[in-house]
Amino acid sequence: MLWYHYCVKRLLKKQKQKYPLMQDADIHKYLAQSFFGPSHILDHNDSLKYLIKETEEAKKSINNETKILEYIGNNHYRVHLKPYILGNYNIHLLNIAFVNSSLLSHGAKDQRKYKRYLVRFNLATTDIYSVPHHSKIYKENYDPHYRVIHKKYLYLIGGKI
What we know:
mainly alpha, 3-stranded antiparallel sheet, 7 helices
């Protein structure tokens, strides 16, 4: 447990260095994505439609992220859409990786661990499945456009891009 706690703290520290304007909602979102990936996404029918729409927004984004993959912990990665699109990678395969990642089961042990981290970072909530949106400050300064996928599905989008 101590090793895992150290890793979470180290990854969160890197996030705060990269995104110094992170608010509580952004930290909560990061922790949720790290622990559960995109498992809070329930509507898979429209995921491709939303991805296509968001890729259009990402093309015009002020976000200057150049790395496609960003490791966020617990075998999950954020796939940044702007460099992904500029690299001419397949959006349909990214969507398949995203949907498959959202279907991975996360047991009660992960949920208890996640709840402890929310308390530890003073982000406790009554609904551990409630994943907030990014804060207004975060959106205005970083204009995030990404999908979270599990490393199990990296092969679908070209491996370690």
